[in-house]
Amino acid sequence: MSNRRARRRQVAHDAAWKQFFALSIMVEHLLHGFAGHIAELLDFATLRDVAGEWVQDGRRRRSDAVWRVDYGDGSDRTLIVMLEFQSTVDRSMARRVLRIVGMAYEKLRRNRQLDPDGQLRVLCFVIYSGGRAWTAPGVADRVGVSANGEVLSLLSQPYVALDARGGVREHLPKRNFVATLLDLTASSSVAEVLDVLRDLGRWLSDEAGDQAEAVCTVYGEWLATCMPRLFLRSRASALVGQWTQGKTEEQSMTALAERMEREAAQWRRRIKRSRQEGMELGLAHERSLLRQQAARKFGDATGDRLARRLADVSDTDRLSEVGALIIDCDTSASFLERI
């Protein structure tokens, strides 16, 4: 894959992840599933997107998603959730997170937007979808939280990485939209993808509530972008169309899974057919070359007779033997006799 094509693919993948976490329910599921008991102390009715108010780092790039939520204990504390989406390992991630948090503190202090106690409480997740394990330094293996809900982050470990292929898949929470996405990311076969989607369809409506249609849409868009060989772009609009026609989410997801299975089978058949056609073209070219070689050495009549005899031959070893005979035989008669 060329560097330009790889870059376009990375940009598309990042956009798909950002769209997913543009829904508040996804951030809520992220905190419930991967932030320890701090989620129990938060008032998710106050969850708001503050990415537009956030700072840029030295590369003129904002964090991929930033949300802010109030604690529900009347303490006037808030928690900022910062998300970074990575398809490649960034070994400078810890430094970058600390730089962004430091700049954010200064900006919010100037704007008098810190908590009343002057604190800035930040929890950073790096959601990683690359093909090899996340190996960058400075990553915490879990979110540390005190009994009263204070985030216990260290300067040496300022973020938590969610890497489905790095082992987190074995401990994913149930009925969780973010866990489902990580499960899909780590799926290595069509069968695994279908199993995950069917399970999602069974509980999507109960968990998503009035955001169910939006959840269906972002899952469809994510699949179309991040799994294009298994999931055609048209499936995203078809999925939402089914939902709006009154079908349940489970029916929509099951229908989607069935179509994916058919499309994957069609894709495999196309690949097999293309390979067969390529082999046939290669064999035809090899037979044509043998005919030309025989005609040059023994005359056109011998070349034509050879072409007729080889018309149905697809054994490459046999064709190699004919090539050797063209070299070894001195006369047309001896050559034709031996083939």
Task: Set out the fold topology.
Layout lengths: L2 H18 L3 H11 L7 E8 L15 E7 L6 E9 L6 H18 L11 E7 L10 E2 L18 E5 L13 H10 L3 H19 L3 H15 L7 H11 L4 H50 L1 H11 L5 H13 L3 H7 L1
Parallel strand pairs: 3-4, 4-6, 5-6
Antiparallel strand pairs: 1-2, 2-3
What distinguishing features does this structure have?
6 strands, about 350 residues, alpha/beta, 11 helices, elongated, six-stranded mixed beta sheet
Plain-language structure description:
It is a single chain. This protein has eleven helices and six strands. The protein starts with a helix and ends with a helix. The protein has 339 residues and is of the alpha/beta class.
Shape, principal axes of CA atoms: elongated
Mean pLDDT: 84
Number of strands: 6
Structural class: alpha/beta
Return Rg in Å: 30 Å
In brief, what are we looking at here?
The chain is an alpha/beta fold.
